[in-house]
């Protein structure tokens, strides 16, 4: 039973950390690119097939994985540089049941930071396109949508920062 639970938790963590932000980014890109928009349109119809599903899955993962080093540089190296995992504590990972606890912290804390951080980057093309389209329809609508997107982006960036800080705190406490 433990292996099935680990597989489910780990798989879910990887999906939210890489696939979902990648899908957001890919969809945002499709609003700027006619060919990508046609692919998404086909995917939502009966003309879709397993090949198109796999293409969308792989492209979303590629976008999510491409965003990851940008997120790490921005959040972990710049914004949260005063909050780092203590590297010297890894020597304690083999003691007791710490390895399992470490994996749990990664799956239940760090993956969410990755999701929020990657999503904050992936959503930019989507937010820009929708906001520009709304401005072309109405100034008031454009301002409203822009403020709504800025509010969501602000909360997402805050969640990414707080998620990383909480991950580091739990990481350091576990491995001391």
From TrEMBL:
Q: Note the superkingdom of the native organism.
A: Bacteria
Alphabetized, the UniProt keywords read: Membrane, Transmembrane, Transmembrane helix
Q: Which residues cross the membrane?
A: 12-32, 52-74, 138-161
Q: Does the keyword Membrane apply?
A: yes
Keyword flag Transmembrane: yes
Give the protein name, as stated in the record. Answer: Uncharacterized protein
In which organism is this protein found?
Streptomyces aurantiogriseus
